[in-house]
């Protein structure tokens, strides 16, 4: 059987807020994605040392801020003092590590659909999922298009299912393991999110027959994106939302909707 309803998010999502258009996991990235015409974004949420949900990918601060040390040991007041934009380009100097509250408000105001990855620091799967799932449910309460929660952590997805059952969930994998379908069933995932380098057509077909959506990351080549959509994926996550979105839009207009396209705009 095919998924019971259309993929709820935009079919092309900007990776880590804005892909390569802005510093990752920042409010500037959300603005860049919207300006590029992208209808949705993917971003990572981890807990600070104060237990607050914030947007950041790494467990340490050094790559994407001017700080040092572990995110999970950095209190909010110190995290807020860091520059999260200058590393990318001087134009973004002063950009901060945003809170989930700030990102949700900006996404809602910009009309961006959201794939929120629950990104626990080591040993914090349960706690991170509890905080993030609850807060996401509150922040998007009453919004027509709530976020989809994804994670590599199966424990985090199980916790999210208990606390925010109304939010759809996706199991993140690199190469799909032999028991990927059983794992999706066990955590109540509505979607399989797989690395495009290892995703094949047979897995996509099997997932869709099982009633699952399929999202894939990180696809920066327009030709590869078109092939994956033709195979039946529902969503491409990309660092180049400007290039991929434009190419896919042209492809859709010339050939009609490829298999797997949802109803949202790119």
UniProtKB/TrEMBL annotation:
Transmembrane segments: none annotated. Keywords: Hydrolase. SUPFAM superfamilies: PLC-like phosphodiesterases. InterPro entries: GP_PDE_dom, PLC-like_Pdiesterase_TIM-brl. The keyword Secreted does not apply. Residues 10-248 form the GP-PDE domain. The keyword Hydrolase applies. GO terms for molecular function: glycerophosphodiester phosphodiesterase activity. It is an enzyme of class 3 (hydrolase). Its EC number is 3.1.4.46. NCBIfam families: PRK09454.1. This is Glycerophosphodiester phosphodiesterase. The gene is ugpQ.
